[in-house]
Design brief:
The complex is a heterodimer of chains A (261) and B (259). Chain A has 261 residues and is mainly alpha-helical. Chain A is built from 10 helices and no strands. The complex binds adenosine-5'-triphosphate (ATP) and magnesium ion.
Chain lengths: 261, 259
Amino acid sequence: MISGRGRAIGLSLAAPLLFLAFWHLSTAGQPFSLIPPPLEVGRQLWDLTFGGVWDDLYSATLLEHALASVGRVYGGFLLAAALALPLGMLIGRVALVRSLLDPTLQLLRPIPVTAWLPLAMIVFGIGPRSAFFLVFLGAFYPILVNTVFGVRSVEGRLFEAAAMLGVSPSAVFWKVVLPAALPSIFTGLRLGLGFAWVVIVVGEMTGVQTGLGAIIMEARQLSRTEIVISGMVVIGLLGFLSDALVQALGRRLLRWSPQHG
Amino acid sequence: MADGMMTQAALNILDISGVTKCFSFNGEPILALEGANLAVRKGEFVCLIGPSGCGKSTLLRMIAGFETPSEGRLSMWGAPVSGPGPDRGMVFQDYGLFPWLSVARNVGFGPAARGRPRAEVEATIKRFVDMVGLTRFADAYPHQLSGGMKQRVAIARVLANEAEVVLMDEPFGALDAMTRENLQRELLEIWERTRLTVLFVTHAIEEAILLADRIVVMSPGPGRIVADELVSLPRPRDPTDPEFNALRRRFSALLGSHH
Ligand SMILES: Nc1ncnc2c1ncn2[C@@H]1O[C@H](COP(=O)(O)OP(=O)(O)OP(=O)(O)O)[C@@H](O)[C@H]1O
Ligand SMILES: [Mg+2]
């Protein structure tokens, strides 16, 4: 018998392996393939990471680019969280703040993050600051919306329970609202971080020197398709790891929640 | 000192006089309860029975301080009730436990929120978790418990908070018959040991006769108290007993005659 976990891992690997096989069979040995075969991408990825294969401008630069992107993703994300969390709690709990800010925020929300890019470039200039701003904006709304939802949808019964147990009105926020809203807030953070990874590439495609988005774009102009694909693979992996980290944190923090624990 | 005790003995723990509650629904007034009078003595086990919509929950929620009377006076130890407070603990039909806290933390929630010293909180938790038989589940979260276990936590939570009056709104209504019987027995044991004052709302005549010192019968449209009778059967009570049956017929008639 294969254990449940082993089986799950085996099953989850089936599709990627099948895809790799298909990719290999349809590209390897073809003289005029637009897409390089997986082994060549693998070699390129090795060279990007450690060098020693091509020894060109890109060799062993992966860490630098990855760090630049990771820094922007987490920087923008943390700034978004630092703003969206308190703002969401205020909008959710204080009627005055809600009437003051909610309509405006709802009006701005349908504007796609990417549509802000030209304006960001005008304001912040061509460079990493635009990318940073885009990440911030991409992460901001999911966190805000879920925080507002979380603090607004606390079961009324819990307020009654707290009141009859002697919780003072001023303590209700910390003792009831915040913990009750935590699963929602957490969902918002997770979505926001995922979105930050989506947006970073777009942000870095506009004249930024470093970053995974930047080398992807540059490599395309030089027809280095292996680098383009290598960059995509690394972004995928980093996004996946970053999400796994957040989820692990959530499982620890939200053990009590049947949806998370 | 002796004077104070005299006053306490003479006072009712709860005094409800001329209490009326009017809600408005879609602009129309709804008279949920009209002119309710009820005096409860310390240590009494009072059951409120009556058909759906006769204002049982409304009355209980006013005593708890969740609603304010439209007319009349409602006081505890002679002092007007002005809002929810730890002296009146409520056990809800849907439990109302904090899902993010373990059984132990739910039980200790009140004392901790009221700033009791840590060691005292821990001792209180242990005592009341043991009392309701959940020692093995002290670290479990509410979603890991059965309905009966959740209701035990809810009961322990108000006991741990030193509630003097325990208000119970159909606490066992959602449980299966066997669990309900167990909890009824355990509640009686706890009540006999602690001599709490209990106000217990139920639909079931049999449950009321099994538990109560005194049964208050209500009727709807508008909600009123129509009868208030003592139950003097010795405990433990046996539902197959002829005297029990006689009471069952009596309260059925009281309920039926006001429909
Ligand atoms: N918040 C409210 N707003 C408007 N009407 C209400 C409200 N709460 C209760 N009522 C009305 O008051 C009346 C009494 O309701 P209550 O819940 O006290 O009845 P009950 O005796 O507890 O019934 P049940 O046995 O079904 O629980 C009902 O007609 C109900 O519609
Ligand atoms: Mg009710």
